[in-house]
Amino acid sequence: MFFTTVSIVRGASAFAKQASRRVHTSLFAMAPVKVGDKLPAIDLFEDSPANKVNICELTAGKKVVLFAVPGAFTPGCSKTHLPGYVQSADKLKSEGVSEIVCVSVNDPYVMAAWGAQHNTKGKVRMLADPSGNFIKALDLGTNLPPLGGFRSKRFSMVINDSTVEDLNVEPDGTGLSCSLADKIKLKN
To answer: What is stated as this protein's family in its record (predicted)?
Structure first.
């Protein structure tokens, strides 16, 4: 799945008065999400902190297109990425997509305002990942200090019954090529 266990055993210092004292530590190394993986059952937020949306429950039994952006109101996200999905919503839904979801490491109020500015209602659901828990679980985060630090890489995925069916991660994490709406590949 997403976790690989690594064990580390260190011998004690020669200066320690105890003979053969050992410390055992387990670390969890993240492995990036891949096609065939089930989504983690993590809560995102829509419109306000009171409105939790569990991403695994939202995608259960449905075909969903999910795309993530480094930040709401940023130029590439506002001029190209989000508008492309809003414009393609009817076409994608006519091809069997139940929901289109935009995720960003932002608060739910920012996501709601950004969605309102782009007329996403009924087309694209704007879900906030304020602590980045979902993005961290997918191992698709990046550090962007000018945008406040931890953010999502730019990516898109097709999800079928909570399982990743197709995944497009921008090679540099922020570009606008493979994760755009017109690059979505739906399987029948």
So the answer is: Belongs to the peroxiredoxin family. Prx5 subfamily.
Residue 133 exposed, middle or buried by CB count within 10 Å (0-12, 13-18, 19+): middle
pTM of the model: 0.81
Q: Catalytic residue positions?
A: 77
Tokens matching residue 20: 């053969």
- Measured CA to CA, the distance from residue 151 to residue 138 in angstroms comes to 12
Q: How far is CA 67 from its chain centroid?
A: 7
Assess contact for 63 and 89: CB atoms under 8 A. Answer: no
Average pLDDT over residues 124-134: 96
Using pLDDT thresholds of 50, 70 and 90, give the confidence band for residue 168. very high
- Pair of tokens at residue 186: 């739906």
Distance from C-alpha of 118 to C-alpha of 163, rounded to nearest angstrom: 28
Among 115, 128, 121, smallest CA distance to 77 is for 115
Is the model's pLDDT at 167 over the cut of 70? yes
Query: Residue 42 in 3-state DSSP?
Result: coil
Q: Using one digit for the tens of pLDDT, what is the confidence trace for 68-125?
A: 999 889 888 788 889 999 999 999 999 999 999 999 999 999 999 999 999 999 999 9
Distance between start and end Cα atoms, the chain:
25
Q: What is the CA radius of gyration of the chain?
A: 19
